[in-house]
Amino acid sequence: MPIVNMKDMLHHAYDHGYAVGAFDLVSLDFLQGILDAAERAQAPVILSLAESHFDAFDFALLMPAVEAAAIRATVPVAIHLDHGASFESAVKAINLGCNAVMVDASEKPLQDNTAITSTLTEMAHGCGIPVEGELGYVPGEEGEDAERHPGKICYTTVAEAQAYVESTGVDFLAVSIGTIHGRMRGKPELDYQRLQQINEAVGIPLVIHGGTGLSDDQFQQLISNGVSKINYYTALSDAAARQIAQNSATSANSGYTGLVKNLRGVIGAETERCIRLWGGAGRAEEVLARCRPWTAVEHLIVYNVEGLDSIGAKNMMAEGRRVLSAIPGVREVFTGEAMKEDDKYRYTWLVRFCHPSVIDSYREHPSHVAFADNHFRPVAGERISIDYLAIEN
Ligand code: 13P
């Protein structure tokens, strides 16, 4: 059950002066290596899925494994959409099991970034999901040479940060103070004074993108100025690539399993080094005690239909599955028919919400209102409707 609310998790880090690692994962080796490290260090951890990597794996196929692994963990875990490309990406991520989201509009003018992020925050908060916004531009691509993506750093300003946080309602702010995504030559110059002023102005957990390549001392300075989440990927990817090269040179088994041997181990070792360096080790228990657990709700309706034959009822349910499953916060729509013909209620909807907040946002969502008014209520006869909070302990 240790999927926890990421807002609670990061506020614990913010209040206690350490940072939680948000490690981008692109395969089961990454997933297992990252969680092995968090378990060994007894630390909170964020499993992060970056949309820029979605050509490397099928997001919808990997998410059930991510969620199952997080539920099985003994340490607190949050599942985050990193650098989402659009509002629709965020809805999809939430409905697949992410419990925190970022849509990256940092390349856009401030006004557009603010508008996009405000719309996102309204939707996500309606699902109980915290949001990370990014202001200023961190150039580069995760996993690649920074020289190949030579965008110019656009530093976050204090005044803009304050206005952006106030008008968007974001829960965490990613700032640009000199870091770059990906592999760098040389040591980046970080503007700690700017970071300190932003922290004083906004007072919410700050996020650093482009963790790879920073020195131990730089990490300490970042954390002591309000950074509570550090995004990290390229170094894990490079450790995995080196291991594959070594396997290829030394292994008698040059088939697939020989080439990918011990990727989980080397990814786990680098993750654990970061977790310990950033101060998260040994915090799992206190974080679990502080965090609200992440609990689903089952919206149950049992009902009969009037004026529709069985085929009509099935068509109505097919339309409902299509429309309702796209509403933010809906994890699954199950429709069913009683197996015994004389059962009191012939049909059921079981709609799984990711969080209790979805009870209200779902009821008011235009797609739900239209479906209920035009398709369901006109034919629904006697029925019972109850929302059940999952009991998972
Ligand atoms: P690095 O790949 O530089 O570690 O950055 C990762 C990142 O910021 C993901 O959002």
Helix/strand layout:
Layout lengths: L5 H11 L3 E5 L3 H14 L3 E6 L8 H14 L4 E8 L2 H10 L3 E4 L6 H16 L5 E5 L4 E6 L12 H11 L3 E4 L5 E3 L8 H11 L3 E3 L7 H8 L3 E6 L1 H17 L5 H4 L3 H15 L6 H7 L6 E9 L4 H15 L5 E8 L9 E7 L4 H7 L1 H11 L3 E10 L4
Parallel strand pairs: 1-2, 1-10, 2-3, 3-4, 4-5, 5-7, 6-8, 7-9, 9-10
Antiparallel strand pairs: 11-13, 11-14, 12-13
The structure holds 1,3-dihydroxyacetonephosphate (13P).
Description:
This protein has 393 residues and is an alpha/beta fold. The protein has 2 domains: 6-290, TIM Barrel (Alpha-Beta Barrel); 297-389, 2-Layer Sandwich (Alpha-Beta Plaits), CATH 3.30.70.100. It is built from 15 helices and 14 strands. The strands form 3 sheets. It has an 8-stranded parallel beta barrel, surrounded by 8 helices. Helix 8 links the parallel strand 9 (206-208) and strand 10. Helix 2 packs across helix 11 (263-277), helix 6 (158-168) packs parallel to helix 7 (192-202) and helix 9 runs antiparallel to helix 11. The chain is globular. The structure holds 1,3-dihydroxyacetonephosphate (13P).
